[in-house]
Amino acid sequence: MSSSCWSFASPIGGTPIGGARHEFRLVAAACHSFDSRADFLRMIVRFKRLFHLGDHEGPQIQEARGTGYSRNRLRETFSFVGRRSSGFLSGRSVQNSDSIVGTLRLRVTHLFLLAVVLWASGCVRPTAPPQRQPSLPIPPSWNAGQTVEGTVDIHWWKQFQDPQLDALIEETFSNNPQLRAVAARLETALVEARIAGTERMPALGLAINGRRQRQNFIGLPLPGFEGRVPQATFTNLGVGLDIHWEADVWGRIRSGEIRAGALASANSADLAAARHSLAGQTAKAWFACSEASLQMALAREIVASYKTTSQWVRNRIEAGLVPALEINLVLSDSSAAESVVDLRREQLERSIRQVELLVGRYPEGGLRVRESLPGISSAVPAGIPSQLLTRRPDLIAAQRRLLASDAGIVQARAALHPRLSLTTTGGMATESLLSLVNGEYAVWGLLGNLVQPLFEGGRRRREVEIAQGRSLEALETYTGAVLQAFGEVETALSVESLLRDRLRKLEASIAEDRVVREQAQLRYRHGKGDMLLVLQTDRRILNTKSQILTLQRLLLDTRIDLHLALGGGFDASAPEGDPEALLPPTLAEEHLN
Fold this sequence. Notes:
The protein has 593 residues and is α+β, with helices and mostly antiparallel strands. Helix content is 55%, strand content 13%. It is built from 12 helices and 10 strands. The strands form 4 sheets. The protein has a 4-stranded antiparallel sheet. A two-stranded antiparallel ribbon has the order 1-4. A hairpin with a 6-residue loop joins strand 2 (11-15) and strand 3 (22-25). The radius of gyration is 44 Å and the shape is elongated. The relative contact order is 0.14.
């Protein structure tokens, strides 16, 4: 019988302070008697297992008892380990296994309380940055044109009472590629907002591992191993969960969440603005089709009038009443009128294909158009200027981007402070698959990480300055957009008033031409005049009608521009609406409220 020394090591936990991870190891060394190398190797394998020393004897200690090792002997072994292991449990000696358990329990309790406090501080929602408005003098009413008050009607195109136009606009909303691209951009922004919202939640991971290892025991004077190195083979199997969570003490994560939500809301407003813009383009192209069709009909009437005139001139030439040169002048005017017909046909086909492209169809030019232009009300229900800030989708988008840039400042400033995170692991570690369900083989670890940047060349300070610059840029962009919106409304009101004046004058002119035509016809019937004056008056009336059609279409375009400038339409009998009703439900509003 001979004697020697044995040792074993096993991790039982971790300390989480300052990012430094210390692995607790128990190393026992004592002299024991053994009869053979096989007994020694069996003892190494037994003590390789993880010891959980509590108020009861675990299966490892019971197994040790079976080999002749008493509980007191094990306590002596751990007492020796405590005296030899510096730094273990803050440098204090371990007198027995109960002191180990008590110290670990105390530290776990303290760490748990710290985690609860940090969790509570991270759940406090920092105050969102205030929603700034441009410092502009906003008048109580519009200066150009006469307006009346009304409630918002976001489906302004229905005021034209054209079912075919309503169907085309709905088709545009469904099939237009440009609108689908904006919608896809919105979906991306919503996903980014959801990702930003997950940073405040703990991250959970599952780890499964297995390892088989051979270990050499060098420097041990073991009998029977003269000239050889003692070896032992170990199998380690483990399964566990990792939980990582960052305490949002300074509001960095929350500010990033607000920023992502504001950008998602801005993209929602962009989608609404794109819908309004495409609706306006579709309506304008549709009315251009109707005008081109009506203009082509008028041009054909003018050509027919010239043909009648040319025949009348030929009769006069044959009678010797006028020189032959007269017919050349009439034929020249007739050819010019026929070219106008071709021009109107080209305009009609171009407008039809434009509508087909807007609604997402192949531009085959087969769309049937309406042969009339709708009327519009004379009163302009434009509301008050201050309503524009909360009505126009593009202004809403600019304001949300300003909010996002302000949240970026808060986020950049929070990055100057330390970042505190907690990581905990727990699971089972054993050498047998069947033992993975045994609670005696449970292991755990708790890691706390407090990171404070000390020197980065002023990078984080510069990031704050960059965020402030972007916020100033967003504010000026928002201010410019508001001024542009006010200018569009005032311009549309002024242009509509001028167009109505021109229309009244043309209608008065055509009334005078009709009087002249009636008098010329009366003189011709009584033999006191000729047919040429009658035909010339007819053509002048047709030309005036053409100008009136153009003005009517321009009035429709101007009214559409006014609807777009106001962010919607108005209907005094309609219930109060909200321009953001066009926006799909988003996560952004939850972040901003």
